[in-house]
Specification:
Layout (H helix, E strand, L loop, with lengths): L1 H6 L2 H6 L17 H12 L3 H14 L6 H14 L3 H14 L4 H10 L8 H16 L1 H4 L11 H25 L3 H14 L4 H12 L6 H13 L8 H19 L5 H10 L12 H18 L1 H13 L4 H8 L4 E2 L9 E9 L6 E5 L8 E5 L12 E4 L1 E7 L4 E6 L33
Parallel strand pairs: 4-7
Antiparallel strand pairs: 1-6, 2-3, 2-5, 3-4, 6-7
Helix pairs in contact: 3-4, 4-5, 5-6, 6-7, 7-8, 8-10, 10-11, 10-12, 11-12, 12-13, 13-14, 13-15, 16-17
Length: 442
């Protein structure tokens, strides 16, 4: 956080916290020459430690000085230079007792809170109060009559905008430390609208969103992708960028179930600080539920194809042979499984072409066949490929690659044959003793 602190020079600049001296007001008077000399010694001290010693001497010898309030402002600036954040808080609170809208004191606490490591509740609470005051009183704090003489009106107005941005960012950070993730999310979102190229804020926003789990995980991953892949002004340093990339890749795969779609998320995150309308990364659970719903709908609309594809999935899996041997081999299929009475598919080839005794059929819809029908008797005539053939047969063997199931089929159980030059011939009585259908249901 020190890197952030060093960049926040606006907090000191707009507050006019000059530590080299201050003008005397008419109603304020030195108690004596010695007090003035102590003040003068303080103004000549260029080293902050020496200045602090001079301030302490002055405060000890003249605790009720007419310039006690001005002296506190110098103390504040000196503690800021020395990076003593707890003393900054204590001094700022003293100033605010007399001047609740003192911009220098309010902004000093907002800066100093980053320096207290690890964060401590009392300082987080004080910082939240100061930032709330800043955000609620920007117009008053930056009124024209509050402008220091050495700052132009344009600089003063610009400082107002920068203070607003800084305050929103810091409010989010304070709330994040307090584990108030919903409010931190709100503050960081406002901050990104003011400075969309601040990749560190994107990472913080992702952090407080993913902590809320549920529907927040999807946009949180978007913001981590932004933090890890945004380059240019506002990008985080390379080492941090790499860590955010690794985090996104790991959590995306865990959440989504694969790396599929990650490139699209990264591309969108690089192009915009906020997710596009309708943005959503499906979780593994959602994918499974969607596919199950689609599968159930497909099963209802085309039970034959559902059965065939399920058989193909099982047969081409690691336990395909066991699946075939225990549930399909020598079984009459489809045999009413899932209510399916016949397999139907496109005729790919017939051997021989006329009066064939072997047919190759494509059931799954591809150009190549996936079922071979060895007939007990030849069909009559010749039929051009492409026509639909229906059948029921006894499964005898299969191959995984290319996928093919071989059936023994009675000629009488073939439908759709439209051979030219002959008919299907007489029906035969099916032989007794055939094994009943036994395809495992999924």
């Amino acid at each position: 956080m020190l890197a952030i602190f060093r960049k926040l020079t606006i907090a000191a600049a707009v507050a006019g916290l000059a530590v080299a001296g201050f003008a005397q007001e008419k109603k304020k008077e030195w108690k004596d020459r010695t007090e003035y000399e102590l003040y003068e010694a303080m103004t000549k001290a260029t080293d902050p430690n020496a200045r602090l010693a001079a301030l302490d001497k002055w405060s000890k010898d003249y605790p009720t000085s007419d310039f006690a309030t001005d002296r506190l402002s110098v103390y504040l600036g000196t503690y800021q230079q020395l990076q003593r954040p707890k003393d900054v808080f204590a001094t700022a609170k003293e100033i605010l007792k007399a001047d609740p809208l003192n911009l220098g004191a309010l902004s000093a606490m907002a800066v100093a809170v980053y320096q207290i490591v690890p964060p401590e509740p009392q300082y987080l609470a004080d910082a939240e109060t100061s930032i709330t005051t800043i955000l609620g009183n920007l117009d008053k704090l930056y009124a024209a009559d509050k402008k220091p003489q050495q700052i132009t009106p344009e600089q003063w107005e610009k400082g107002k905008g920068e203070m607003n941005t800084f305050a929103q960012r810091t409010m989010g950070w304070v709330l994040m430390q307090k584990k108030d993730n919903p409010k931190a999310e709100e503050a960081f979102t406002k901050s990104l609208t003011l400075e969309p190229n601040n990749a560190q804020v994107s990472a913080w926003l992702g952090t407080v969103m993913i902590a809320q789990r549920g529907e927040k995980i999807s946009p949180a991953l978007f913001h981590f992708a932004r933090a890890g892949h945004f380059e240019g002004q506002g990008a985080v340093e390379p080492a941090a960028r790499k860590s955010y990339q690794d985090y996104f890749n790991r959590v995306y795969k865990q959440f989504h179930g694969s790396e599929k779609g990650a490139d699209e998320v990264i591309a969108a995150a690089k192009a915009s600080a906020m997710p596009p309308a309708g943005f959503k990364i499906e979780s593994q659970k959602e994918i499974i539920e969607r596919e199950a719903a689609n599968e159930e709908e497909f099963k209802k609309s085309n039970p034959m194809m559902f059965l065939w594809r399920n058989m193909q999935k099982e047969l081409t899996g690691e336990n395909g042979q066991n699946y075939f041997d225990s549930g399909m081999k020598d079984a009459l299929l489809p045999g009413g499984v899932e209510g399916v009475k016949q397999f139907r598919g496109k005729l790919v080839s017939a051997t021989p072409e006329t009066n064939p005794k072997t047919l190759v059929v494509s059931i799954g819809g591809g150009d190549a066949g996936d079922a071979t029908l060895n007939l007990d008797e030849p069909l009559r005539g010749k039929m051009e490929p492409g026509g639909e053939i229906g059948f029921e047969g006894v499964a005898k063997s299969f191959t995984k690659d290319p996928f093919m199931v071989t059936f023994e089929v009675e000629r009488a159980k073939v439908t759709g044959w439209a051979g030219v030059g002959g008919g299907p011939g007489p029906k035969k009585t099916p032989p007794a003793g055939k094994k009943p259908a036994g395809v495992k249901k999924k």
